[in-house]
Amino acid sequence: MRTTKTFICVAVSAMALSACGGSGSSGASRDFVRGVGSSTVYPFATTVAEAYAKASGAKSPVIESTGTGAGMKLFCAGVGAQHPDIEDASRRIKKAEYDECQKNGVKEIVEIQVGIDGIAFAESKNGPGFQLTPTDIYKALAATPFGKPNTAKTWKDVNPSLPNEPILVYGPPSTSGTRDALKELILEAGCKTDAATKALKDTDKSKYESTCHDIREDGPYVDAGENDNLIVQKISQNPKAIGIFGYSFLEENPESLKGIPMSGVTPTYATISDYSYPGARPLFIYVKKQHLGPIKSLQGYVAQWVKSWGPDGLAQKKGMVISPEAVRTKNAEIAAKMTPLDPSELK
Questions:
Q1: Among 101, 80, 86, 78, which residue's Cα sits nearest to residue 27?
Q2: In a domain, 212, yes or no
Q3: In terms of CB atoms within 10 Å, which of 105, 161, 171, 326 comes out highest?
Q4: Which residue has the higher pLDDT, 97 or 174?
């Protein structure tokens, strides 16, 4: 009987929220904000949540580190108190994800860029001093580099100038926005250095994407889950291993890690800020506009983000690279007006 009552309560609250439309009015069974998504955005989102609770006296938002892809599925599953209000993302929402939201009644989605991050490649302070390029990474990690099975066992197999050490890379899982960015910013850049493979994009897009994006599963790449701190621990203890994670985790561990230059550019605050580092990428939060009325503290939590993303703000102190002033101004206006995303911009 208790289970039945709980189900009815959730169903009623979902109906009430669904009826709220763009602005919302009543019927929420939650008195706190719930966010899901990126493990990269997670430490910033929780810092902002704590600051909001302290400043407002409201309950602290509950933030879950699910990975961007898994978070999108939760966010887009529907409108109602059982569904998240916010999705934290280390990449932009995909057209297919937006369409899934629409199908499930999530009609108005507000996209807010909160900062910049980089996909950092790092090694132990005692590591050999790798100098890599996107092509090196592609040849080492792709399942079928340039359409052929990957037989590389050592970095020297990939590039004669690299150390004769086994390829061992701890990186993000398939649900992570960091994994998506790795494929799109680094692997694809290496893949396109071959003219014949690059030409596949126009003649056989499906084969092009699998050739450029699929990561090998025979051991050299280790899916380390959504806990970036675990990757930090593993590579700090193994000088022959490489880790891939958000730049903030590299910045927070200077005593045990060092960044690996990519095409001669070391991941630093400055090189990520000006996008000269190949792995630089924007970070976002997505807000479910239909939840603004029922979830009373949602607007306030978003406003706290705006207060936190500037120079000397909480996010920067936590390790986030701040966006240029023009980007911050534009997104502060979006946050204030809760202007929905234009889906025509999505891929």
A1: 80
A2: yes
A3: 171
A4: 97
